[in-house]
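To whoever is covering the structure queue this week,

Two jobs came back overnight. Logging them here so there's a record in the thread.

Job A:
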Amino acid sequence: MARWFREMGPHRGRKETRGQLVAEQWASYRLVDFIMELEERLTKWAHRLIIICSAMILRKLRRTARFGRRLKLRST
């Protein structure tokens, strides 16, 4: 991602002073870092949510399976 910004970023075809270019590059790098950090945090939370939800669903399914067996046993 950082390489893409270096090669194809918004400052690619311009002729600016070194200071401007460096400031712009620095801003884009900081933005990329921020986005990547955000993505990391979101994926962590998403994984946690998926794990919690799947555990709850499994628990519910087990309960219904047990209940179903009980009903079958009583009916015979």
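Job B:
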Amino acid sequence: MSVPRIETLESLPLVDHHCHGLVRRELNRTDFERAMTEADHPGPRGASFFDSQLGFALRRYCAPVLDLPAHAPPDDYLARRAELGADEVATRMLRSAGIADFCVDTGFAPERLTSAADLAAAAGGRGHDVVRLEPLAEQVALDIVTGQIGVAHFPDQVRARLAARAAAGGAGASAGAGAGPASGDSAPVVGVKSVAAYRVGLELPAERPTDRVVIAAVRSWVGRLRAGAPIRLADPVLHSFLIWVGADLGLPVQIHTGYGDTDLHLRRANPLLLTDMLRALMPTGAPVLLLHCYPFHREAGYLAQVFPHVYLDVGLATHNVGRASATVLAEALELAPFGKLLFSTDAFALAELYLLGARLFRRALAAFLAAGIADGDWTAEDADRVAVMVGAGNARRVYGLAEPAEEPAATKRAAAKRPAGTTSRRAPAKRAPATKAGPAKPAPAKRPAGRSSTSEPAKREPAKKEPAAKPATARRPAKPSSNDG
């Protein structure tokens, strides 16, 4: 059965509020299949990840972008991909996705994937930086191990370094074609991200840890580092502290919840475990973005309804569940207000995942809205407004992103096909200022609406397992990077 089209949604330049960089080298079949899912292996012998919801969606939607018929066999698809080359494939997929803005988590293996600037250039859109909190804290801990600062300086160093990241650089986004000049390698970030779910789970101390408690936790951590432990933050007190630091700066705080790779204990990633912390964070006014959420998307929808500062997405699930994405999105919207759901792809490594995330999202939301129109639950005008809200407006409001100067190439082509008299409305870029509460902290960086960022290189390889940990030594190690999703 064909899916009814909502014209505004078809042509809307999306805002991908959470994604990663992509691999620009050629991939063999093993590496390609490993990058398709959150698994750390290419599948059991005799089976393939192409035989999955994701695999069938990839063959349907991505094959035509490479000049192949829909549902082309995997071998034909991979051969054509290799023939075109990684750069051409990336450009085709990204420009076909119709994404105007990419908020890129730059903390995962930044030496191996594209930066937000490169991603934006390939897409003809704009890139923005999201700072992963754990690598920043791990670098401060290494400075303590190597004797550059004392343990007692850890809290203030973390606050100062994050504030500096938020205030550094120029005033523009990392820009692709049509988005204005890039602002260099450093620019204000649009948010921060915690991967506490991977490290310790989400049952974190709710109240703001005092500096004395933080220093005691750091002293214990540094002792383990000096004894040769891996350079990997995994302490509930310190994860809680980092979230509070981001919130005190008024930055949107992204928190991984739900589905992830094999490092994750799924039962500890239920967003309901954050309830007390969400209640405690509410006076700061900082938005909290629950990422991914699946299979806890209904629980996340509840939290988004009852807490004014809580938002959610189902991005990672969208492309992994394929044709079931409409069901997942509808379930998330059972309780979540339409102004609280954001679009994301959580795309990583493969350019195909940006396209699939966008196509399946448009299809799922179109089916949801069209069913409501058919049943008389809302009007076509309401559906048009909600499409803009969920696809772009909510993210622009939360992150303070301006409208793009030009639409991405794919959305301009879609707009040209609209019937006469059909318009594509977009939500205004407006964000209410956050209020602050709690002990005095460094002054938050000024973030006028539309101010965005370039990113440091944000890269990760298809295989998501961490390398063998090296003991900390007196010699200053290389800057660490977190390998969790």
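Note for Job B: The domain at 7-416 is CATH 3.20.20.140 (TIM Barrel).

Please reply-all if you pick these up so we don't duplicate work.
Q.
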